[in-house]
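User: Here's a structure from my thesis project, written as structure tokens. My advisor, Dr. K., wants to see whether a designed sequence matches the one we expressed. Can you design one independently, without my sequence as a hint?
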């Protein structure tokens, strides 16, 4: 009984499952992505996060359940088909060429040409600079090789590229995983900008501290199953953290770490005072 068109969510998965041979990677998962919202998918390694986004991205096909885009059921044969419906995925490795200029990477595979097939370099430079500026990134020089940017800036270029080429849904696979605190902040801020522009964002992470401040909905996966699916007003940050870590397990670990830290502090004091 789903509405087709404007009222329907951008993406809706219902009871989705996926096996690799006899490995159950995903079982009975529901997920909804709305315009102007960030949907976070959390879970430890092996939880099924990448499998889920590969299904959304059209790279893998689900074995059970349904996948709808704006109210219409879809079965994708390739990522191209997902992209044509405005579902863009930014993978961790980003598919960029480090030695090529930023603008070149921005337009990679979608180069703008003038007469006789010549590249319209000026247009691409200008557009890249403007698109990054619009999202709050001020790059002095779009001619610099993308490899000279920080990890966070590279993520932002990849996101800006998806937005520029008409994405409605932006799927980000652990965009903050390899980054330090400050760089992660740059990317998180950027995700908020994308949301403000009306995109539906799917943000995959194993870090509840990154997810909670910017998320509107949270799906927590554990060994391929959903162990929680909440809107922000239904869950506190601490509850999210403890759900993610399996509750009791985390508490035990916290005590252990505190004890270890106390021990360490004691030793340091001893060393300093002797
Ligand atoms: N191509 C594959 N072939 C077989 N098993 C896979 C494949 N991809 C993932 N898996 C398995 O599916 C489960 C979920 O993996 P994945 O979706 O990559 O989890 P996550 O991204 O949360 O770390 C894991 O047990 C993993 O080993
Ligand atoms: Mg993964």
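Assistant: Designed independently from the structure alone:
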């Amino acid at each position: 009984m789903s509405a087709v068109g404007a009222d329907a969510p951008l993406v809706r998965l219902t009871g989705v499952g996926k096996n690799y041979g006899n490995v159950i990677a995903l079982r009975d998962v529901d997920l909804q992505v709305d315009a102007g919202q960030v949907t976070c998918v959390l879970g430890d390694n092996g939880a099924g996060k990448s499998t889920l986004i590969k299904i959304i991205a059209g790279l893998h096909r689900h074995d059970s359940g349904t996948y709808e885009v704006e109210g219409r059921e879809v079965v994708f044969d390739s990522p191209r088909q997902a992209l044509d419906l405005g579902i863009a995925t930014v993978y961790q490795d980003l598919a960029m060429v480090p030695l090529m200029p930023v603008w070149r990477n921005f337009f990679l595979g979608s180069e703008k040409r003038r007469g006789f097939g010549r590249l319209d370099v000026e247009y691409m430079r200008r557009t890249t600079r403007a698109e990054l500026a619009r999202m709050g990134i001020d790059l002095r020089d779009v001619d610099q090789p993308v490899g000279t940017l920080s990890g966070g800036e590279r993520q932002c270029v990849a996101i800006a590229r998806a937005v520029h080429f008409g994405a409605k849904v932006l799927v980000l696979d652990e965009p903050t995983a390899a980054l330090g605190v400050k760089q992660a902040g740059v990317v998180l801020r950027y995700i908020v900008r994308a949301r403000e522009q009306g995109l539906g964002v799917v943000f995959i992470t194993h870090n509840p501290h990154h997810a909670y401040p910017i998320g509107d909905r949270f799906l927590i996966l554990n060994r391929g199953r959903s162990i929680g699916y909440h809107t922000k007003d239904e869950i506190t940050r601490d509850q999210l953290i403890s759900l993610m870590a399996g509750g009791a397990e985390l508490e035990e670990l916290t005590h252990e770490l505190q004890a270890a830290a106390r021990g360490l502090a004691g030793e340091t004091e001893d060393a300093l005072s002797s």
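When you compare it with your expressed construct, this may help: The first strand starts at residue 11 and ends at 20.
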